[in-house]
Amino acid sequence: MTITFYVPRDSGALALGAEKVARSLQTEIDTRNFDARIVRNGSRGMYWLEPMIEVETPNGRIAYGPVKASDVAALLDNGMAEGGVHPLWLGLIDHHPFLAKQTRLTFARCGITDPVSLEDYRAHDGLKGLENALKLTPSEIVAQVTESGLRGRGGAGFPTGIKWKTVLETTGSQKYIVCNADEGDSGTFADRMIMEGDPFVLIEGMTIAGIAVGATKGYIYTRSEYPHAIAVMNEALEIAREDGVLGSSVLGSSYAFDIEVRVGAGAYVCGEETALLESLEGRRGIVRAKPPLPAHKGLFGKPTVINNVISLASVPVILDKGAPFYKDFGMGRSRGTIPLQIAGNVKHGGLFEAAFGLTLGEIVEDIGGGTATGRPVKAVQVGGPLGAYFPRELFDTPFDYEAFTAKDGLIGHAGLVVFDDSVDMLKQARFAMEFCAIESCGKCTPCRIGSTRGVEVVDRISANIEPEKQIEVLTDLCHTMKFGSLCALGGFTPYPVMSALTHFPEDFRPAPIAVAAE
Amino acid sequence: MQSASTDIASRAIGIIDQLKGKEGPLLPILHELQDEFGYVPPETLPLIAQALNISRAEVHGVFTFYHDYRDHPAGRHVLKLCRAEACQSMGGDALADRARQLLGIDWHGTTADGAVTLEPVYCLGLCACAPAAMLDDEVIGRLDAEQLEEIAAEVRL
């Protein structure tokens, strides 16, 4: 019988040496001359255990990690092919507490299947959502998505069904589905993991969106920083075309749909939806004023659905299992699950998909296991470079769109970056302004000029030049940026700055010697 | 010299012709030119403008807006170090200082021997194994000072 090993091709695993591990395993298989194959799966999202090897056994998949290439021979000597015990042995992977506690709906297959095997995809409930969608009218599909309560997972949290309904009801000679895969927020990698680990779910979600609103063409706009995701996506698209999932007759139906991957060029602001559309059209990534909404006049002036990767990748399970099933998870107006990305200085960093409602403290301390350095947690930045820094005092905040807004924060794309007590919050506030200055598209003054002035003001605080007055100026500047900027880049940069100032005021009144010591 | 620039022009025209039929072809063309030449030769910008029937100013604006596009060749290797928050939380700033010191160059600089160009990058999506870097096409997680020294030595071989 052929033994099946799994070694991830996810770039997080590759960054930790998965390629060397896979090569070493292949060499050992060849040398020992036994019947085995290596599947290059996506990642389970437990990055402190990557590279992780799994082996298929009659009882389930047994995992080993983190594995170095030099461990492979010893693992095989200890009977890894049969799931034998070794210091790196993790047991049945499905029983691992980090996975067992999750509710994996969007990431149901990620790390389990071969990402570029459509047979695997079908065998694990793939395409069922699309098959169901083909039996419904477009407005019935939209109604399902609306009823599920799915909201934009890119950060804005706008109800996906409402967006689709607007495009469905807008007439146009051509409509588009644009997938925003420009995942630029530090601390986030869910889009990358889906594209690398289960690309067909995104293809399926976009195809359902196309059928629902009457669009025949889709674009995935992703980042040049994601070469592996681009490669896997393109490979999967080719397979989907050959197999008739995409093309002039989607799964043999009367609907046509095709998708193309487009690559950005290192501009963070292109994650803003209208800047993204400008970039796709071949222009500078300059934010557009709204209205008109992209749903009315989007790509090339045509009605366009623009959704985040995770929003689109959550659609197949909704159409497969039904809106009530999905809606049953979550709290308040935040329905379904959210793939939390636990990152930075954290012991158990990775992707944890769960229903909304876990508290920040549970996520960081219980699931994340505290800091990697073993020092106390000082702050957690939630929602990327435009998200607020949360102190321990706010660890009881439940992970929910409204609850975070109420605490002057945002959940954004659900990335959490943990910092230990060595972090200097004044420095983090400066970085927020600096980043905004580097990435500003330049269209509106509060963002373009405000960010540069912000860096200067923070520098004066560091230099202890009339700090009280500077703090007043900084507060006023943040107010202007928040309410005067055209998009979230300038508008949300005040979140990290003001949260740092509000929750960690001691860092803004540093004794000069303390700064030098840091 | 004459023949070199004619060669660039003819290769560029081939790329432009192949891609100009796409919807919104400008970024794909610039990417392909950079893949082909290692940078976007300035003399190709008017060719793009002509083929797409847009102004040279428009092409120049797009070319200079995006951080990725270069107007001159990079070093033989490109080392990108992530400077974003998740990597900062794991000592990324200190590593970045060390890299600049080891290579004797600042951000966007290329060593005098042409071996390596150092670029900042804001997130590689490797935030759960920070600090992260990318050497040419190879992604690197949990970068430490020792590994950085190995890289600095390796790229100069």
TrEMBL record, chain A:
Belongs to the complex I 51 kDa subunit family. Keywords: 4Fe-4S, Iron, Iron-sulfur, Metal-binding. Gene3D superfamilies: 3.10.20.600, 6.10.250.1450, NADH-ubiquinone oxidoreductase 51kDa subunit (3.40.50.11540), NADH-ubiquinone oxidoreductase 51kDa subunit, iron-sulphur binding domain (1.20.1440.230). The keyword NAD does not apply. Its cofactor is [4Fe-4S] cluster; FMN. Residues 426-471 form the NADH-ubiquinone oxidoreductase 51kDa subunit iron-sulphur binding domain. NDH-1 shuttles electrons from NADH, via FMN and iron-sulfur (Fe-S) centers, to quinones in the respiratory chain. The immediate electron acceptor for the enzyme in this species is believed to be ubiquinone. Couples the redox reaction to proton translocation (for every two electrons transferred, four hydrogen ions are translocated across the cytoplasmic membrane), and thus conserves the redox energy in a proton gradient. One of its GO terms (molecular function) is FMN binding. This is Formate dehydrogenase beta subunit. It holds the Pfam family Complex1_51K.
From TrEMBL, chain B:
The keyword Iron-sulfur applies. CDD domains: TRX_Fd_NuoE_FDH_gamma (cd03081). One of its GO terms (molecular function) is oxidoreductase activity. Binds 1 [2Fe-2S] cluster. [2Fe-2S] cluster binds at residues 82, 87, 123, 127. It comes from the Bacteria. The keyword Metal-binding applies. Its cofactor is [2Fe-2S] cluster. Pfam families: 2Fe-2S_thioredx. Signal peptide: none annotated. It catalyses: a quinone + NADH + 5 H(+)(in) = a quinol + NAD(+) + 4 H(+)(out). Keywords: 2Fe-2S, Iron, Iron-sulfur, Metal-binding. Belongs to the complex I 24 kDa subunit family. PANTHER family: BIFURCATING [FEFE] HYDROGENASE GAMMA SUBUNIT, NADH-QUINONE OXIDOREDUCTASE, E SUBUNIT. This is Formate dehydrogenase gamma subunit.
